[in-house]
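Encode chain A's predicted structure.
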Amino acid sequence: MSEQILSGVFEEIEKQEKSLVRLCQDLIRFPTINPPGNDYQAIVEYIGNRLKNRGFSIEYVRAYGAPGDSADYPRYNVIARYETGRHGPCVHFNSHIDVVETGDGWTKDPFAAELIDGKIYGRGACDMKGGLAASIIAAEALISSDIELKGAIEISGTADEESGGLGGVAYLAEKGYFSKDRVDHVIIPEPLNVDRVCLGHRGVWWAEIETHGRIAHGSMPFLGDCAVRHMGAVVAEFEDKLYPAMAARFTEMPVVPEGAKQSTLNINSIHGGQEEGSDGLPSPCVPDSCRMIIDRRFLVEEDLKEVKGEVTTILNGLKTSREGFKYEIRDMLEVIPSMTDINSPVVQETANAIKDVLGKDPDFICSPGTYDQKHIDRIGNLKDCIAYGPGILELAHQPDEYVEVDDMVNSAKVMAQAAYNLLMK
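Encoded structure for chain A:
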């Protein structure tokens, strides 16, 4: 009986392929670049209007006071809920609506959403508007099939995942939208490849380090103290001590790609001296300040306090050994590693669906970067959460980003089957 029911759902998804393509294209054409957070209200209203016509109740939630929220760039989220009228669990599909900047190197218009040879191109096609579109089609197919479903289906489009999710899932989790009395199982359609179940992610610590110096005339640098040179000493210490130490550590988490099984540190930016952007020549001054943003990704086997301690030990060592060295360090973001039990219901039902739809055993992986599972786990205390969706992980944030239509169709089938089995238990 279950196979017959799902066969009908799969047929409906196949019939809706053109609708799926149009939906994905429409979503990409909202240039929801974050920062600053463009067109959030427009895209959530588009999602809300569509799902309202399919019988969902719609709620729009603005994250007042969240980082970046303003009159010009309000942090809007949409939560759509379909009640079956029969007692049962709730399956929630969560997708972020924001995308990163386009950057250089595109050969296609980043927001034209062109369909070429079975691929839809555009910023956010892979990460993760293709997944959002697939989850909507999956839910609509389940509802339109006239199955006597139990419980509820929720779909959310949320803000700011690319900048930490504080105006999106974190805010909603704090308000109870991801609480155990409301939601039981969560699937986040991030682009981790259509034949893989993502159990979780590494941890992250972002921090700003500032070195201080003394301003002086550039022709007489000996009368000042160059903050940029002090920062150069920090980078040198990282190269000599921190990078070799991290390279020796490996995780038992199934993180992909292989290089992400180690601890990593990226220097996101360094800014020192006079502000950039002047059309004229800079003033001849010794810089009295230099700032560096570090992005430290750490393993489940590492302790955050020790991760921070490695950096501050280096900085304090320079304070002792280097004349005039002064620094400040400011925490920007902290995320503890998260990993769902491989035997949990959402993992097993999604894995079974991949076997049935794709005819292969899935890989169980963890993501090198974080995504909104961190807030669902740590704030909502919901452990039955995974990432699963269409799209190739390595295409995220790249020029000529795309998502394959076949992958969207197959992932919609997987999500529909997983949701059905979770609801009917």
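The mean pLDDT is 96.
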